[in-house]
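1st attempt posting a full record on here, be nice pls
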Amino acid sequence: MSSSAFRTVPTSADVVIIGGGVMGASIAFHLAEAGVRDIVVVERDDLGRGSSGKPIGGIRAQFSDPLNIELGNRSLRAYQEFPHRPGADIKLDTVGYLFLLTSEQQAAAFETSVAIQNGLGVPSRMIGPEEAQKLCPYVSTDGLVVAAYSPADGHCRPGLVVNGYAQAAARAGVTIATHTAVTGLDTAGDQVVGVRTSQGRIACGTVVCAAGAWSGRIGAMAGVHLPVRPVRRQLAFTEPLTPPAPRIPFTIDFSSSAYFHNSDDGLLFGLADPGEKDGFDTTWTPEWLELFRTVARERAPALADMRTVDGWAGLYEITPDHNALIGRSGELSNFLYVAGFSGHGFLQAPAVGEVVRDLYLEREPFTDISPLSADRFRHGAEIRPEAHVV
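the predicted structure (as tokens):
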């Protein structure tokens, strides 16, 4: 999508969405589809350059928390229907997700989660080491206790999703202002009344913060506490493989968070560095790969010596309990927020777009998202940590 066509910033809007990633684009699409006309999406860079910039996004409904299962499952269906609504090819590959479990404790926890998932319509199941190896021939069964697998999960391309939503939104009249940084928010009483940007001020009826790892900064401009911290995550691509790699699930060694899956004519490797400090640095450091190779030598030995040709670093937006922040501010009644998805934002974006549409229209969302209010950390409410974090 050409940025230059979307540079003009109007002086007023009913809804200003801050952030042009997958969340902002999904929200813009769902609002426009529901008939909301006067919408501006403000993005300081090009669309999808923040956390949504990753080359391949996993999509799954395998979670431990019922609310995350529901958001993931509804989004899976939306991604399956994406060619028809909003109408774009997103290179969806339904290869399944395979969690490799190496302790009885992990096995017991995942068995509990699979039962909850099955009750919510997710076709996940526990499988033995041999079946896991059949699904993913790279896997070594040594030390593997059991695995969890759902054939309905898979991956697709975040950039295509962002553009698909954004183009449909633009066709419906949404203004998309790229290369437009938010510099401040004006409030009066319990309302946000204006969004100050590098291209001018926008008087507004409602603001939606969908700024990913930068959401804490946007919240602070309005006096709203959004406890989101940025953490770098890195991945790498192998050289083209001959013979080609078999078609494998999105495979995760749960103990280490190391994961791998098909990517074009090779494989993609990823792993969360437990020593990574908070910050906005997205420099890719090839030395990081040694962490992945160390795990691979034990769990998938053939991967350990594969040559890589490229890599990428992006930001996760982490909250204290690894669950998202979704809701309406208690202090500012027209400030809505979606942030802190802790690595599962892309896979929940379609459902979250629906939820924000309904919050804006004051309709009942398809599921109760009140447990995801940012206020949960202040009020000492019960925090439900998400166990299936990668």
